[in-house]
Amino acid sequence: MNVTHSFNARPAMDGDGVNIRRVADFNLQRFDPYLMIDELKSNDEQDFIGGFPPHPHRGIETFTYILKGGFEHKDQLGNIKAIRSGDAQWMSTGSGVIHSEMPLTDNNEGLHGFQIWINMPAKDKMRPAQYQDTAGKAVPQIENSTGAVLKALAGQWTFAEHAEYVDGLLPDLAANGAIADVTLASQGVAELALSQHQTVNLYLYQGELSYQDKAGKETLATAGQLLILDSQTLLTLKATTAGAGFLLLAGTKISEKIVHHGPFVMNTQAEINQAISDYQQGKFGQIA
Q: Is there a domain that residue 271 lies in?
């Protein structure tokens, strides 16, 4: 596979003292249409017990995926849902959402999950908020001849050796967004043809992948790295003896200037100022 850029997740803290690892690029937007990936992984409840109390968003979509443990989601739209291991959740915040994400009280196994921010085109940033999740549903998946498993979380996916596609349960992400969770066994290989997408990012959360860099040198990607891939070439993904688990984030570039301030992502400073004012005046509503 052709890797054009690589980034390392950095330790950060968000919510009420929640320890995470984060990869973000709001300035150069090299992940476009994706803005940020937060990974929360810990067996120590002190790293996440504070959760994410009520807070607002405007102008983005959030995509949450849980591998272990779970959160309870609440929002001002009236949605209350437990998001557990294997579940995904999509929230198109549009003109405004207030939500909370708190660790489930019956969770004693630690927590491992992701929240991904997806930008929205300017024309959609003030549309009504939308919410969907996959709780209680089996995630569609496919397996290749080497034992690689791809779980289609959003959008349409297949391996290069397959003729049929599988459709994720969350089809409406901004910018034709498509997200998959792929696992490779020790020294496993998977090939994907994703030329229909302008953007393909890979976030490695487990194990190692080997690839050749721009100079042709054999290179290892390790857990906590995000790789930007050339979508117009066949993607050959090779795990080392450690195996690998990673998210694939594909989509269409929005290519619009943005202004980011905390939980708001708009296109001008005036729109950010309006978002802050609307929130302070209570126009986002409140969680019942």
A: no
The list of the chain residues with pLDDT below 50 reads none
Would residue 270 count as lying in a domain?
no
Length, in residues, of the chain: 288
223 near 209, Cβ under 8 Å? no
Instruction: Look at residues 136, 153, 177 and tell me which one is the last residue of a structural domain.
Output: 136
C-beta of residue 220 within 8 angstroms of C-beta of residue 208: yes
Q: What is the pTM of this model?
A: 0.97
Specify the pLDDT at position 212: 80
- Alpha carbon distance 13, 275 (integer Å): 24
Tokens of 243: 């195996």
Per the DSSP assignment, residues forming a β-bridge with 212 are 218
pLDDT given at position 64: 98
* DSSP string computed for 127-138: SPPEEEE-TTSP
Strand partners, 12: 20
What is the total count of domains within the chain?
Answer: 2
